[in-house]
Amino acid sequence: MLDVDDVVSVLVSFLHSLETDIQEGSAKVVLVIAGFDSYKVVSVGAGVIAPLIRVLECGSELGKQSAARCLMKLTQNSENAWSVSAHGGVTALLKICSGVDCKVELVGPACGVLRNLVGVEEIKRFMVEEGSILMFIRLARSKDEALQMMSIEFLESIAFGDELIREMVIREGGIRALVRVVDPKWSHSSKTRELVYFICNGEVSIQELALKVAFRLCGTSEEAKKAMGDAGFMPELVKLLNAKSFEVREMAGEALSGMVLVSRNRKRFVQDDRNIGMLL
Fold it and tell me: Which regions does the record annotate with the repeat ARM (predicted)?
């Protein structure tokens, strides 16, 4: 009777198959196995990463989707990052994300794998050198809502704690792309709430970037200000009036002054005496 190691070894060998059906079927089974922590080590030990990357490069569309989702599970918390990199996985994933004809079902998990890998400094630098910043800013301008958010999450991860990359994101048009994503004319209010999340919980550099987006968004339209008020921006902006950075305090104050020009925002604002006290 075959044990787990033997079964995984057989599946890995099937990933090398030239028969599309066999390759797709084994990729789907490996995807299920990769969801169990105890089997991840077994899968990686059996050499699953190299054939998964080969499927990404040469497989069918369905095979590529399963392979990318598999790699996303195998690289959580930057696990197995070097193995993916050593087999050319980073280049293959970047190629997928740069393709004009690729579907969200493939680009989405490919974005997820790359986001998992940015925790390794050398791999992050390689991605930057290969033009990933501009690539993901372009993806953030996509009409597909899922791709927009995955791209923003990647940009947040790659800029985390890195002032140079943060400035690169801004220079390459990242703020304009983010404004377009959260502007109610282009997307749903859930995106505005995502921006609130970054202001509340983001690392300092990401928080400042999100605040700049909010500041610019305030100047786009009355509808934008209403959406920001509905999403709960004002209490968070009030908190930032106590920030150490003068620039942060100034942007928060100007954003608030723009938002309270809208009647329903003004009513919300004055309902909390602490808001008035903070301004005074």
Answer: 88-132
